[in-house]
Structures are given as C-alpha cells and as structure tokens.
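From the pipeline queue, job 12 of 40. The input is one protein chain; the requested action is below.

Action: predict structure.
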Amino acid sequence: MNKRSRSTAFDSKPKLRLKPACTTTAPTQPAAAPLDADKQVVCLFSSVAAELPETDEWDLSGLLLDGQPVSRDIVVAWLNAAYQAAYEEDYEAQQPDQDPACSVEGLYMLLTFADAVDSTRPLIKACCSRLQRLQLHAQLGQQQVALDTNGLEADKRVVCLLSSVARALPETDEWDLSGLLVERQPVSRPTVVAWLKAAYQLVYEEDYEAQEPDEDPACSVEGLHMLLSFADAVDSTRPVLKACCSRLQRLQLHAQLGQQQVALDTNGVGYYFSPTTSKLVSQPSLIESGVTMVATPESPTEQQAAFKQQVAAQIERLLWLAYRLQLQPLVEHMHTCIQAFSIFGLSVLRGCENEVFTPRVLEAAGVASLPGGKQMLVNSVRGEVLTLADSTASGQAKLRPIGLTHLQQLPLKFDAVATCSTLGKPGVAVAVELDLSGNSVIKLGHNTFAAQLRIGPYIQWKITLA
C-alpha cells in the first residue's frame, strides 16, 4: 500500500489561508507571506478556526500573545504539529534554530498560541514533541454526520479528515455503509464504533463510545482483521490505522475445538496438544514446567487438525494485512505470536507453515520474487533451528563445529536474566550452561535441551515507507 500523503490524496482539499502578522517576533521583521493550509486540519484542531464565518482566510494579524503579534514561525510550528497528527508529515520543514518548539521562549509562545486558538489536547501535546532539543537562550547582562449503522452520529470533521472516502462524499450529513462489503461481509456496528474510537482518541483523547473487551473488535484476531479491512476500505490515514492496533496486549484468537470455543492469548504464550492426554494446554515458556489446561475434553486427531487450520487461517489473514498496510507494531506482535505457537513439538502451528506463509503473505512481505524468499521469511519469523554435534558424531548431525581450541570446547557457564516471554518470567535470573562439544546441550535452570543455533540470512523487519 502506498503511503498516504497530503502531497497526493489531500492536495485537492479546501485550503484556508492563514495570515500571520510578521515573519518572526523580531521588531524589525516585515509582514509575513500568508500560509495556505488544509482547511479541514486547521478547523479540526482549532475550535476558533472552526467557528470562523464561511471564509477561506484566517487573519491572525490582530491576535496578540503576551502583547506580541503572532509570527509566521509560530504558526508554521503549530501547523507542523497538526499535520503530524493528521498525516505524519510536516506542513513545512523548520531548522532547529528556526523551530519555536526547540527554545524555551519559542515553545512558550507556541503553546500560548495553541491555547489562544483553543487547540485540542493531542495537538498541544504534539507541540511538545521536541523537548529533547529544547534550549533556553539568554544574554548575560462540532458539526455532526450520521453514519447509517444503527444510528451512529459522529463529528463530521473527524470522519472526513481521517477518511478520504468520507471526504469524497457529496455534500450530505449521512454516510450509508450498508452497501460496503469487507471480506464479502457487511460492516458491523462494533467495527464502525472501533474505527470511530481510534479516530476520536487521535483528535480528542477520548472514546467515541465505550466497548467491553469481549465486544471490542480490536481485541480479537478476527475482529481486528475486519476493523483494519474497514479502515483500509475507507482509505483511513496512517495514524488511524495505527490507533486501531492500540490494544494488541489484549488481542486473543478465538477458534472452535470440537464443541468448545477456545481463546488463545497472542502475547507470547505457547499452546500445544499434550502427547499423553490429547488435551490442549498452555505453557508460558520453555523453562517453566507448569502447564495450564485450556480445553478440558480430549481432542481426537481430526479435531486437533481442524483447530490448527482455524488458527493458521486467522493468523494468515492478519499477518497479510500487517505486511500490506506496513503496520510495524502489528508485524512484530504477529511474529511473536507465531514463534510462541510454533515453539513446542505439538504446538498449534506445527505443520501449518504453508497455511500461514501463503503466496499473498510472501507478496505483501516483499519476498515472493526472491530466490528462497519463503524460507527466508519463515526463518526470520520462527528461527531455523540446527542441532550441534561434536567431531565424533554421526553423519546425521546438521551442524558440526570445527577448529575449536580446548578452552573453546569447555562448557560456558553464566547466570542470565530472562527478557523473552518464551524463556521465563522477565527479570528472573536463571543458571545457564552451554556445552557446544561433549553433550551438545544447553541447561536452563533444572531443564536440559539439545544445543541448537539459529543461522542463515534473516530479514530485518523494520518497515520504511516509500
């Protein structure tokens, strides 16, 4: 998906001409050239601008801040904060020595202006986004739009700013979503409410409407997939797409196991079918022996297979969207989920590699055309595990160290603090013994595992937008 930018999709929007009094606050400065800005952005983040009579000009020359006229650099800094909130890009670049937000006096004037025009709280916070560069210089000496989804009414400016589809509607106070199909399904009321919540949090730092976790689409894999599909279908801005992913810590995957509906956490907990009881159990890490029963009935092989197919299908859909929409937090969360769901021998994703890493996932991840691209992606997400062996091992060994000195062959012993959810509770120290030669084992606390390495070319998933 292409980056949504004001330089493309938003250039055709109505403009509001802002007229500062001067270029800077210096007394000898001439009158400043006017600034043409996105009218909807300005009116959304300033109630004073929103209440102007129907006009395309906002004369700021008569506004005084602590007895001083409003300068162009103050207005540009305010517009930069507004455009960052709406589009994640500046209105106009400012060097640090020209940016009011980088000096104590300038930031004071910027916040005073933001307050004078009654800016929203997120915008006031955005004005303070460069505090790490803040220096002190001194000398010694609302209109409503009705969404036809069970009578939802929302702030028209918010909806039109954050969705180009809504903005392109003819002049109307109603947006009929009944004909919109997402994944061949009609858009549900909870999905629209969740989208409005994300939009309202961006603009007002408050929910459009409260939703319980079991009703919130953003808290289930299937629901989040539908929410992001809807947000994409109405061409939402990137901040809205990111805001839709703000509840990943509560994200669960729901699937049917026989007659029982099962909820799986996606935050690093491993799930597998017990080889002795055929029951679904969870285990938070490799080194913790305690397991929790997730589903009480024993699950026949065919039920296990059907359950794993459901899990794989839901993960595939959300992983594809995460790559295609370039949502880095969601990509990382899905990688963690896949690792946890694959870590044990009978894990719920074991044997489902083809169902998760489908051609469209490879295409969205940008590896479909690379030689061995699929295996590179799988290794990048899950890790390729190879068993080590000493020089006397049989030909079955996958990896045999060579050229080690005597000291290098001695077991390495140390204490470590677990920082990964699959290795134990964060912050808890565990004794580690790594033997790469003799027994080819690694001991974590009282547990012993075959020594293994993760090798090969791996993709670094730090997304940059073109």
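Job complete. The chain has 16 helices and 21 strands.
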